[in-house]
Design goal:
alpha+beta; 8 strands; single chain; Butyryl-CoA Dehydrogenase, subunit A, domain 3; Butyryl-Coa Dehydrogenase, subunit A, domain 1; eight-stranded mixed sheet; about 400 residues
Length: about 400
């Protein structure tokens, strides 16, 4: 009898943290939707919602199991981000920041990494990737100063970082290919100043204020190279920059899916526009527009899946750190952002005059997608490198 009970115990399946996270998000979904206006008005995600997200595992999903994290496969992590973006743009965006922060921290020196996660894996890390600071080597480390924009999530962060140009005698130090040498400085939130500057057209709830270091000597352990050889095992840690465009693409796609959800919900209310002969859902004009929108959405979903599968294959094979792979990711992020903006514009137009009110989620989705499309990872200039890659590959094939 005891042997049977023991075997029965061992047959209980282990919990799947990825599925648990998705289930937690679904439980939280009604509250997130109900508090959208509050999130926008506060220009941040309310602290109690941040704690709910923290308990779900948003900040530990890419932290290694060796430090108490979930160490999700990258495709699983993107599914979580997409699910949150589908509910609310600002919450989806800070979930990206949570994921990126954990990945960037993985490039830090071992002694700093241990310090960050010494009290557990649920650490919120944010910062700015703009090289808006300088770091001058001095005795004991670096003298750092700067003012960085777009520090999304800084209002609930535990640690914050900023990209700095390394200087000697006030002059930038040349790095690879003659470009200025850049490093990241990462410090506890108490060392930073937060300037209340986030008054924006969209993604209002992300709290993307400016952060500043007026001038302080930072220990050398807190300054590191993002492109250094990984100190952690596992496919998601071998190269960090190639993941960034894929994160942005997941956000665009999730937000576009949510926009279509909102349009369909409006149609199912039986709403009938002024001077229209039939309700929206019975109008062939509406049905035609909706058909085009769903076709664009399906194409975006398929492209994202193909690109994500390609990146993950490279990660598993140890070939992710490759300039061509990075360009392919940038191509997908740019195309997805443009396509998803088009989906939001079309949904807004089909909804008619009701969409212009602050109470309509469609106007918020539209603003959020347009603002996200201004990000460097989604800028149209990315296509220059994409075009060069196409030309080089064509020449290689012809040769």
């Amino acid at each position: 009898m005891r042997l049977q009970e023991k075997n029965k115990t061992h047959s209980v399946p282990l919990r799947d943290p990825h599925k648990d996270m998705l289930a937690g998000i679904q439980q939280l979904a009604p509250e997130i939707k109900a508090r959208a206006a509050e999130i926008e008005a506060a220009r941040r995600v309310p602290p109690d919602l941040v704690e709910r997200l923290r308990s779900i595992g948003i900040f530990r999903m890419f932290v290694p199991r060796s430090h108490g994290g979930l160490e999700l496969d990258f495709p699983a992590g993107l599914e979580v981000i997409k699910a949150l973006a589908r509910l609310d743009g600002s919450i989806g965006w800070i979930s990206i920041v949570g994921g990126v922060g954990a990945l960037f921290a993985a490039a830090s020196r071992p002694e700093l990494y241990q310090q960050i996660y010494r009290d557990g894996p649920d650490v919120a890390i944010c910062g700015s990737s703009q090289p808006a600071g300088t770091a001058e080597r001095v005795s004991g480390g670096y003298r750092v100063k700067g003012r960085w924009p777009f520090a999304s999530g800084c209002m609930h962060a535990d640690w914050m970082g900023g990209f700095c140009i390394i200087t000697e005698n006030g002059k930038p130090v040349a790095g690879p290919h003659g470009k200025p040498l850049m490093r990241i400085v990462l410090l506890p939130v108490r060392d930073w100043e937060i300037e209340d500057t986030w008054h924006a057209a969209g993604l209002k709830g992300t709290g993307s204020h400016h952060i500043a270091l007026r001038e302080m000597v930072v220990p050398e352990a807190h300054v590191f190279d993002l492109d250094a050889a990984p100190s952690l095992p596992g496919p998601i840690y071998q190269a960090l920059l190639p993941w960034a465009p894929l994160l942005h693409g997941a956000f665009s796609l999730g937000l576009a899916e949510g926009t279509v959800d909102d349009l369909l919900a409006l149609a199912h209310t039986g709403r009938q526009q002024l001077y229209a002969a039939t309700p929206l859902r019975d109008s062939e004009i509406f049905q035609f527009g909706l058909g085009r929108i769903t076709a664009d959405l399906s194409a975006a979903q398929a492209y994202h899946e193909v690109q994500l599968a390609s990146h993950w294959r490279h990660a598993l094979a140890g070939t992710l750190k490759n300039e061509d792979v990075h360009i392919e990711g940038a191509r997908s992020a740019t195309w997805l952002a443009t396509t998803c903006v088009g989906i939001a514009d079309a949904c807004f137009a089909l909804a008619g005059s009701s969409a212009v009110y602050d109470s309509s989620p469609l106007q918020r989705r539209l603003r959020d997608l347009h603002v996200a499309a201004q990000h460097a990872h989604a800028q149209q200039r990315q296509y220059v490198d994409v075009g060069k890659l196409a030309l080089r590959r064509s020449a290689d094939q012809a040769g």
